[in-house]
Amino acid sequence: MKAIKKTTQKAGEKAVRRSAKAAGLVEDTVDQGARAVHGIHRSISDLPFNVLHRLGVMDQTISEIKRIHDTSVDAIYETICDVNHRVSKMTEDLLEEEAVRPKKGPAKQQASA
């Protein structure tokens, strides 16, 4: 009986490791995607600011608007990465809890009279 319990426990631990690895892979993929989109977003948004700067139209105002824009965009993408990390951590924690939770055997069916 102990051998079965130990085998079941090892199988559960192995499943948790696989699931945690998958959660980490998803986290990394989302993080890399968000960082790539962030870079593209900044590159595209720089275009109109650069044109206005070259035209010399309200240079100081445009510079301040660009600074505010860039700060906001950076904060948004950092928040996306932070939420992604927190969700991944929560997923790992839930998987660990599930692995240590005692499993119930199959429900016994009662014969109907």
Q: Runs with pLDDT <50, length 5+?
A: none
Count of strand segments: 0
Q: In angstroms, what is the radius of gyration?
A: 26 Å
Report the total helices.
Answer: 2
**Proportion of residues in helical segments:** over 70%
Overall 3D shape: rod-shaped
Give the amount of beta strand, in percent. Answer: under 5%
What value does the average pLDDT take? 85
- Reading the helices and strands in chain order gives HH
The main β sheet shows up as: none
Structural class: mainly alpha
Report, as a whole number of angstroms, the end-to-end distance: 34 Å
Can you tell me about this structure?
- With 113 residues, the protein is mainly α.
- The protein has two helices and no strands.
- The protein has helices at 2-55, 59-100.
How do the helices and strands line up, and which of them pair or pack?
Elements: H1 2-55, H2 59-100
Helix pairs in contact: 1-2
Could you list some keywords that capture this structure?
113 residues, mainly alpha, 0% strand, rod-shaped
In short:
The chain has 113 residues and is mostly helical.
